[in-house]
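= Protein in question =
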Amino acid sequence: MSTATDSIQDLISTQHRRIDSMVAEIIGAVSETEDLALIRKAFGRMRESLESHLQDEDRLYEPALSSARLPHRHVLQGFLDAHKVFRSRLAEIDADLAHLSHAEAARELTDFVGIFEAHEAAEERMLGHLEAEARLAAVDS
């Protein structure tokens, strides 16, 4: 039996894999070329996809804040706060790519990707935990 949590977890995981593919494209562009125009173009595609994904997650997490048990509420709020930081950082990197050297651009992008990948993993762990709780609650009912 599929639950709402399964659907949300599947949606988020599917979006994360699509973003991972774009991340691989930008990291590939940085390692394969020093053409900053190509790097900026790949970054633009990744940024657009990532911002759309963050908006989707915000729409899922915000209503849950009012109904989530206290520990989950803090985790969800932390994810929403991180999304604001990611949006800000994406804008900064976008502006920086106009004047950074190839090495500096590679470092900024690699740092951002590492932080975002850790965020993705934390979200997926939390959603897995919620799925397990939903299954236990269904068994108890």
